Q: What sequence folds into this?
């Protein structure tokens, strides 16, 4: 991969694919359509990417973004009739994404799940994409392989142990490895890199470091397609934005010509406040759950109280204990832990965490794809999985009761589905998340612990989830929200605990709190008075 240089590369050649400002159109598709049985996922979409630009692709879940990317990557074949050009040369639309890097090394993709083998190290993961250096007898030339990996990673200015499994790397380090793997053999001056939700699991501090890498690729002449649900990223990083809605291209605009409100209106077709805060009622000053001296791998001597009817936020950088705290409260099977818990009742007693029965506490996991949704099952089966004992005996299931129960939750959560018997993977990400909410709340917990509750969902589904949580709080639920997305914490919480180095470093009222103040508190920096 060429070195990342700060100078924006432009061309002066006379060509039909040169646009205003001297930037070449690297990729252009016109009339792109994709039909699935009963669904027109893409309908006559035009899309282009220029050299030296970051082009955002946005839209609500189900708008067609994922389908467009899968067509470009060769995962889906498009309907007939569309056309494609790479750097002005016609290309068979059905061949765009085929080959190791797509269209002779011009198209590369970093998908949301990154496609890495976490049990392997960075060197092996890079070689899985680019090939191992071997002798004539087939043995791996490890010294040469190590040097090649360091050359690939050098432009990204990351310093970590390339020999350790990626399971021990930070989210940013994994993302950089995935980008480096995608760019092997790639011509940045004429290539297009597609980044699908690259910051989904990154904390704010690491997002800025990733942006620096993406901008350097742009300034070296690459075209970047950037997919994100986070409006701040679109306005802070991207040059142009294309909006899809219900499979159609609604608009392509310069980002500087739009406000957040205008972009949301284009995405959803309705007015919606981007900086939304849910109508969560004021919590009582009545302790429901008290925790003291909580300890685990990252947490140490962490003490806090959850009041009845409260939405308590847990903020912090990676390894602060933010992600570990929900696990310790709900699933301690694989962790070393310690601490005590006391739950409100007629005669509350402190109980060792190891002996505490936590039936009243339910967890919504952070990764719905790996830990939540059971992909081979239907919507109904996913909704009722946690309470099957209510619908008959271990030997016989009352399907009528099960269907009625699922229908009730589909209605209550406004889940958009063709029917309860539809496969859960036919739903958009936001509706899959609603299914997880239903399955978790079906247990009737007193405390709901939410980890990354809006990861990978569009702004419309995000607001619907916020409103649903607020409704459940009014019904008597108490909630703990642990999230790397400060938008979740500000929109939902009444009080926020900031963890640093495994302890509660700061407690903040969410009333009037700004994103700037919260991020500064997470990073341990001084900020203006609250």
A:
């Amino acid at each position: 991969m060429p070195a990342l240089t700060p100078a924006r590369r432009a061309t002066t050649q006379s060509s039909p694919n040169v646009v205003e400002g001297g930037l070449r159109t690297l990729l252009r598709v016109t009339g792109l359509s994709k039909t699935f049985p009963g669904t027109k996922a893409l309908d006559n979409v035009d899309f282009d990417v220029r050299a030296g630009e970051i082009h955002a692709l946005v839209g609500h879940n189900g708008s067609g973004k994922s389908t467009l990317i899968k067509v470009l990557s060769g995962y889906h074949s498009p309907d007939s009739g569309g056309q494609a050009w790479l750097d002005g040369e016609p290309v068979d639309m059905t061949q765009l994404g085929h080959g190791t890097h797509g269209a002779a090394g011009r198209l590369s993709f970093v998908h949301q799940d990154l496609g890495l083998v976490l049990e392997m190290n960075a060197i092996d993961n890079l070689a899985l994409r680019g090939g191992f250096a071997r002798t004539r007898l087939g043995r791996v030339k490890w010294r040469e392989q190590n040097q090649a990996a360091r050359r690939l990673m050098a432009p990204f200015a990351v310093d970590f142990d390339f020999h350790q499994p990626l399971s021990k790397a930070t989210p940013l380090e994994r993302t950089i490895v995935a980008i480096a793997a995608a760019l092997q053999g790639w011509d940045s001056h004429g290539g297009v890199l597609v980044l699908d939700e690259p910051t989904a699991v990154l904390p704010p501090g690491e997002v800025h470091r990733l942006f620096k890498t993406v901008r350097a690729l742009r300034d070296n002449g690459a075209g970047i397609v950037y997919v994100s649900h986070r409006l701040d990223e679109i306005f802070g990083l991207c040059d142009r934005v294309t909006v899809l809605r219900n499979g159609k291209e609604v608009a392509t605009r310069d980002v500087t010509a739009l406000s957040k409100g205008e972009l949301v209106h284009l995405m959803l077709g309705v007015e919606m406040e981007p900086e939304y805060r849910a109508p969560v009622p004021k919590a009582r000053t009545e302790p429901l759950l008290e925790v003291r001296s909580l300890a685990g791998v990252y947490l140490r001597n962490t003490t806090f109280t959850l009041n009845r009817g409260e939405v308590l936020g847990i903020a912090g950088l990676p390894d602060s204990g933010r992600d570990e705290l929900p696990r310790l409260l709900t699933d301690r099977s694989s962790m070393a832990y310690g601490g005590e818990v006391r739950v409100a009742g007629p005669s509350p007693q402190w109980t060792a965490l190891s002996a505490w029965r936590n039936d009243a506490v339910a967890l919504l996991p952070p990764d719905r794809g790996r830990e939540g949704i059971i992909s081979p099952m239907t919507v109904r089966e996913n909704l009722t999985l946690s309470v099957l004992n209510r619908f008959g005996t271990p030997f016989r299931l009352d399907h009528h009761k099960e269907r009625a129960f699922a229908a009730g939750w589909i209605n209550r959560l406004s889940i958009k589905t063709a029917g309860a018997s539809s496969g859960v993977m036919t739903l958009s990400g936001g509706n899959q998340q609603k299914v997880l909410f239903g399955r978790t709340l079906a247990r009737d917990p007193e405390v709901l612990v939410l980890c990354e509750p809006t990861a990978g969902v569009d702004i419309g589904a995000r607001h619907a989830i916020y409103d649903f949580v607020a409704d459940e709080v009014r019904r008597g639920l108490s909630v703990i929200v642990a999230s790397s997305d400060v938008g979740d914490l500000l929109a939902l919480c009444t009080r926020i605990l900031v963890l640093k180095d495994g302890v509660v470093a700061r407690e903040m009222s969410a009333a009037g709190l700004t994103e700037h103040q919260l991020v500064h508190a997470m990073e341990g920096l001084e900020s203006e008075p609250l």
